[in-house]
Design a protein that fits this description.
Elements lengths: L1 E4 L6 H11 L4 E2 L3 E2 L14 E2 L2 H9 L3 E7 L2 E6 H9 L4 E4 L2 H10 L4 E6 L3 H11 L4 H15 L7 E4 L3 H18 L1
Length: 183
């Protein structure tokens, strides 16, 4: 299993999309969230979109491998998503935030962890503003949290700078392929 983490706006989803084009056998565990879909997002593809009551019921039932609150919304990885991929003999890739990555590392220390970082804080701010989905106050909160998260990059086995998504994807592919050779 491969855990991809990093601050909001670092380009994790873009890099993972490119990695999956190069390694189509990878299974992406679709996370669940209580946030509303962004334009173009579909339930079950980018996220399993849930209301808060349903999400909390799934937490209480032990349905999540990990979950956390992030920017006022709940996010989590459903055990069923991970177990289905691993049971089929596939490599599973998770896109999760720092707290979730720490939780997975405690329960599955064999997971390979990769932290994606933007080339600079100013580039991160540009990316977040470019989304056009959040207020200035929400962006400021994300940037504050990003600084804290980037300080934790040393906790990960690998750190990839996403200064160019194609190059960053190539680096993640190399990490995955090297891990497979060692397994």
């Amino acid at each position: 299993m491969f855990v991809i983490s990093g601050p909001s706006g670092a380009g994790k989803g873009t890099v993972i999309g490119l990695v999956r084009q190069r390694l189509p056998h990878l299974v992406t565990a679709v996370s669940a969230t209580t946030r509303t879909p962004r334009p173009g997002e579909a339930d079950g593809r980018e996220y399993h979109f849930m209301d808060e009551a349903r999400f909390r019921a799934a937490v209480a039932a032990g349905d999540f491998l990990e979950w956390a609150e992030y920017s006022g919304h709940l996010y989590g990885t459903l055990r069923s998503e991970v177990e289905a991929g691993l049971a089929g003999g596939d490599d599973v890739i998770l896109e999760i935030e720092l707290q979730g990555a720490r939780s997975v590392r405690r329960s599955m220390p064999e997971a390979v962890s990769v932290f994606i970082v933007p080339p600079s804080t100013s580039e991160l701010e540009q990316r977040l503003r470019g989304r056009g989905t959040e207020t200035g106050a929400a962006i400021a909160r994300r940037l504050g949290r990003a600084e804290t998260e980037m300080a934790a990059a040393h906790e990960f086995r690998h750190v990839v700078i996403n200064d160019d998504a194609e190059r960053a994807a190539d680096e993640v592919v190399a990490i995955i392929e090297a891990q497979r050779k060692d397994a």
